[in-house]
Each structure stands twice: as structure tokens, then as C-alpha cells.
Amino acid sequence: MNRSAASRPRPHSRKAGGRRREEHCKTEEKADDVAPRGTCTTMCPISEVRQREAQNRLHHFEVLAGTERNRLPRADVCRAVKEYSRPAAGKDTTRASELRPPDVLLKTVCYLVDDVAACPSRQPWTEVYSFVFDRLRSVRQDMVIQRVSGPECASVLERTVRFLLYASYRLCGQPLRLYDPHINDTHLQESLSWLLECYSEGQHQHQDEFQALSLLYNLGSPRALQHALELPHKVRHSSPVQLALALNRAYMERNPVRLLRLAQRLDFLQACALHRHLLSCRRDLLLLYSHGHSSRNCRFPIQKLADILSLECSLAAQLCQTHGIHVNGDYVVFSKGSFTESPSEELQCAHMHKLVDDKQQDLSLSNIIHGIA
Amino acid sequence: ETHLKIHYILPREEQVLEAIDTRDGVFCAELLSFKHPHVANPRLQLSSPEDKCQQVLEPPYDEMVAAHLRCTYAVANHDFVEAALPVMFAVTLDLRVFANNAEQQLQKKGKGKVGDMLEKAAEQLMSCFRVCASDNRAGIDDSKKWGMLFLINQLFKIYFKINKLHLCKPLIRAIDSSNLKDDYSMAQRVTYKYYVGRKAMFDSNFKLAEEYLSFSFQHSHRSCQRNKRLILIYLLPVKMLLGHMPTTQLLKKYDLMQFTDVTKAVSEGNLLLLNEALAKHETFFIRCGIFLILEKLKIITYRNLFKKVYLLLKTHQLPLDAFLVALKMMQVEEVDIDEVQCILANLIYMGHIKGYISHQHQKLVVSKQNPFPPLSSVS
């Protein structure tokens, strides 16, 4: 039940021992306040470099050029990055020499973006993704242990979110053993929530951008929408957030025509965020039209349909056929009886990426992830 | 004789109220403690003190005192088994209240994740719940199962606060399958139905939501204006989605005039007024968590507007352009004929319009019989 809790006074228990308990709590609080502070100045602690080198567990992106064929390849200290390690009993993750302070973490992230992710010579990109994904996870781990917060935390998380959003689009359709969209989604949501929490205090340059990305990625989520409605006025009325809200409204009103039309106004990264919802939006349009235009004499021009679906004609025709909609030359025949929900295997989201593709143009990946549009 | 009891009760509850207001924690604790002599006072022994407490005290203190009074009653009757439950009630209630306070303190310091304290409290309550639910030993009168609904209501409060409504499902299932469900006190059942109704709203199950919230509203204690108003805040949007508009009289009675323009706009099919009304009272609607549901009224408003177009043109073959003109008159931004088709297609799909769109002729062809079925018969 809603109550104006702020105005209610609260009874303090001052029974015998209460004061002692209060003081005890204060000292405990102080102890909790001292989070470990890292002193490692390199992207990977030297101890880990030596250990992995000796155990032949270097990633080939970390190997010193020319030593790849050695029995034990040598580490390139400028390219070794601390890997993620699962917390385990007996493992001390708080040794200062192995923790990287916030400025080193940001440098690490920049290296991962500019020299690995955005490096065109590194192929295949699924391998690049795996490496960067893992190393970013380790960066977040260092942040958690040191309880980093505020703008330093936001800078790292913003790049992480942009990377994961881009990946969700770029690797869409790849085989499961190379890329798991569900795992990507879990980490993306985690990073996004953490980032939005950082934003709840103080001013942040990119807040508008990320509140909008969250709304697009989580299209139709009541939780994301309620959060957005409660944002400070200035953020809520910024143009990226307003556009994202408009798309959500079109979704909630079940107007996919409007939704796809508004989607044309999104920039590349926003389109990446929205992209996983596009297939179901298009499907919904076909469902609604199957009912709304259902008549024996129905002749709906394929070109028109392709326009409102934001697809090429041939793909539009394929999508129709997948859903049991009869295609007759230049026209389709809508009929509520013949529409089928379950799509066949052949037509995947990845074949219909043109809407997003076109937006990338000559933007470099580096600029996309650093947020320099 | 009841009057006399209430008269004697009153000063004591006001004592509690005063103690709360002056932040006199010590005295307050005493009043709720079993070691204080007041416990022996026969005048304080009421078996169903909730209503009286609700009238004098604000939540959560009303519940705390009521639980305490139930306890004194049970203990006075040497019914320690019966007393055990109210003690649990009081303790679990304290737990939730303290978790709430802890949350707010943490939030002020910018520490911890929102909802952590409340989630922990919920875990504790769930263990109590499991104990009660699995109590098969005692006879029905002594059964701990009587504690179930109270606990569930506490858990609901927490889950709603931390926005994890899906956790309500197993609890609802437990009550649905219980044979005690209609025998709990009315106060508990009213609270239960309120939350289940709100959950049904969230799940877009509007017919069910109407049933539960109506029950809650009708069986709420007459004198508890505050509770009835709270229930109404959620019942109104649901009823409007089902086509039943509230009277101005009702809105005035419960101080809910924020809904007047919304009501007017929807019934007239006036999209412009609807958008203005939603914007005007945005803060209130968002705070109550009903803004998103009220936006769903747009579809009903489209339906009402389009019905007017149909009645005006007096034909069964309506040019799509007519609907576009109507929308433009309502200052709907950037709408074109394609979007009009989509809105109409959706209305047909939902059953609000009986007919079909002919793209070739750019017309909406409606059924000659009842093309706009009454709202209550749809969805």
C-alpha cells in the first residue's frame, strides 16, 4: 500500500543493550566502509601473467609475436589482460597488487575496444567477442570488489553496454557454440541495471542515451517503463528518451506500423538495442492484418506491405509465406483462418537486418563503442 | 456494551498514537509489550480489533496494535496456541516495517541495492509461511494454517514494493487450493483480494481484476475512507477498460477528481482531452502506478471516436479517410492512412469492430448488425 512514509516518525528501541548495539553497528559499518583498493598498474597483474605463461594458458591475442610456435609461448605484457576467475573458497580476490584501480580499468577497456574489438585484422569476430566478453567481465569483477561507483564506474559500464548491444546485433544468427544470445543478454541486463543505478546520483553526460537504450532493449517491459516515467524531468524529456518512449507507446498500443516507422529515426546503436524485437513486431503486423483485412476479395499490394514492414519485397513475401499468408504475384491475400504463429526454421532474424545495417554507414566500431557519434 | 468497550479502548489507542507522534519509542514499546500491566485490562480484550485500530491509527501501526490486542485477548483466555499466531503476526509485521526503514536509511546513504532488505525480510516470512502451510498436526481450530493469509498479505506488500510480482503466484495458488480461504477474517480477505486484484491488472486480466477489486471495495469497512479510496484508484481504470465509467458523484465522494477528465475523454472518444488529462495528472498517476494502464484506454477511446464516425456517416462502407480526418481533428501527431489501417486492424482483431478493411477501395466495411459491440461483451 502506498503511504507517505517520509512523514511517519519511527520508534527507536532503546531497551537495555540498545546503545551498545548501536555502537557495535557503527564500528561494523566502519569496517565495511573500507573496500580494498587496487594497486596493479598493468592490464594484467604480473603474477597472473607469469602463471598463465608457465601453464600455457595465454590467449593467442596475448602472445608475444614470434613466440606463437614455441612450446611455451611468451606473454606480451602490453597485451595481456586479466581474465575472469570464478570466486572460490580459499581464493583471495582482494590482494591489492592484483586489483586494478579505476583509471587502469578504464585504460584496459579502451585497449579492448580499440585494439581488439575494433581491429579489422582480428577474425573471426566470434573469437574477438569471446575474449573481450571475458576480459570485460573481469573488469567488472575488479569494480565490484573495490566497490567502485560514480562517474568512474559509469565510464566503464557505458562502454561495456555499447559493446554488448553491438554484439547482440552483429552475432545474431551465429551457431550457439560460438555465441549464446541468452548469456549475452544476462550480462547486458546486469551491466545496464548497474549503470542506471550509478545514474541515480549526480549528473552524467550520457544518461539520456542509456535510459533510451534501456527502454529500447527492454521494449514493452512495464518495469523499464515505470522506471522511465519516474526519471527527472530533464532526462525524461530529452529527445532520445522521448523517441524511445514513443516506440514503447506504439508497442503498447499494438501499432507495429507506427513502431516500425519510428524505428527509422533511431541511430545505429539504438537500432541494435531494438533489433531483437523487430521480428516479433513484423509478425504481429501480419497477424493484425490477417484479421483486419480478412476477406475473400482481399488483394493487398506486396510493395506496400514491404514498405510498412521495412523489408525488401522478396523478404516480405518470404515472411508472409512462412506465416501461411498466400502470396499471389504482386499481392497477398490476408485471411484470418490461414495465419500461423509458428515460423519455419529458414527465415531468421539475421536475414532481415537491413534496417539496422543501413544505419552503420561509415561509423567506426571504435567510435560507436566510445560513444563518439 | 460494545460502545463501552470502544470508549475504554479509545484512550489507550490514542496513547499509542501520541507515543508514535512524539517518537517516544520507549513508551510505545511498553504499550506493545506483554510485560506492561495493561495486558491484564479486560477492556482491552477484543477478538477482532482491526477495524477500530484502522480508524485511529495509520498503517503500519494499525496492524501492529491490532495484532497485539488479539494477542492480549488470546492470552487472557489462556489460549496460548491461539496467542502464538498473533505473536507471529506482530513479530513478522515488525520485521517488514524495520526492513522498510532499513531500506530508506540505506537509500539515503546511497548504499546497497534497492530491495535488498525487503527481500531478506521476505525470505524470513516465507519460512514462517512454510511452517504454517505444512501444519497438519493440530485440529482445525488450533491449526497454524490460520496464519497463512496474514503472512501472504505481508509478503504481497513486500513483493509489490520491490516490484517482483511474479513471486506472488505460488502464494495465490496456495490459498486457492486451501479449504480455509473463505473462513479467514474479512479484513484479511479484503487485503488479500486487493493485492490479487492488482496483480490481475498487471497481467492484463481485467475481468478477474474487476472481480477481486470490487469484492475488496464492497467489503471494506464502511468507515475506512482511506482504504476504499486506495482500492478505487485501481478499480476505476479496470472498470473503464471494461466500458463502465464512474459518476462524478463517486469521484467527488472519494476525492478522486483526477479521473473526471479521463472519464469524459474516453466516453466521448476525445483523444485530445485524454492526452491532456493524462499529462495534467501525470505525477499522481505515475506514483500510483496506473499511468501505463490508463494509456490502454487509448484503444477504447479510438473505438468510441470511430463509432461516432460510423454513426455520423450512416453507411456500412466507411472511407478510411474519414477516420484520418477524425484523428487529425483530435490533433494526433503524424498519423497517416497506413497507421489508420493498423489501428482499425487492431480494433477488428480485438473484437471491438466487426468488419474488414478493403485496401483496394480504401474503405472499412462493417457488419450490418452490431458492428461496434458493447465494450463489456468484448475482452
Automatic annotation (TrEMBL), chain A:
Domain SAC3/GANP/THP3 conserved positions: 43-328
Region (Disordered): 1-32
Superkingdom of origin organism: Eukaryota
One GO CC term, this protein: spindle
InterPro entries, sorted: SAC3/GANP/THP3, SAC3/GANP/THP3_conserved
Biased composition (Basic and acidic residues): 19-32
Biased composition (Basic residues): 9-18
GO terms, biological process: centrosome duplication; spindle assembly
PANTHER family assigned: 80 KDA MCM3-ASSOCIATED PROTEIN (PTHR12436), SAC3 DOMAIN-CONTAINING PROTEIN 1 (PTHR12436:SF38)
This protein's name: SAC3/GANP/THP3 conserved domain-containing protein
Organism field: Pygocentrus nattereri
From TrEMBL, chain B:
InterPro entries found in the cross-reference section: Csn12-like, PCI_dom, WH-like_DNA-bd_sf
A single GO molecular function term of this UniProt record: double-stranded DNA binding
Record-level GO BP terms: poly(A)+ mRNA export from nucleus; post-transcriptional tethering of RNA polymerase II gene DNA at nuclear periphery; transcription elongation by RNA polymerase II
Domain spans labelled PCI: 190-371
Pfam families linked to this entry: PCI (PF01399)
GO cellular component terms listed in the entry, alphabetical order: transcription export complex 2
Superkingdom as given in the UniProt entry: Eukaryota
Family: Belongs to the CSN12 family.
Protein name per UniProt: PCI domain-containing protein 2
Species this chain originates from: Pygocentrus nattereri
Gene: PCID2
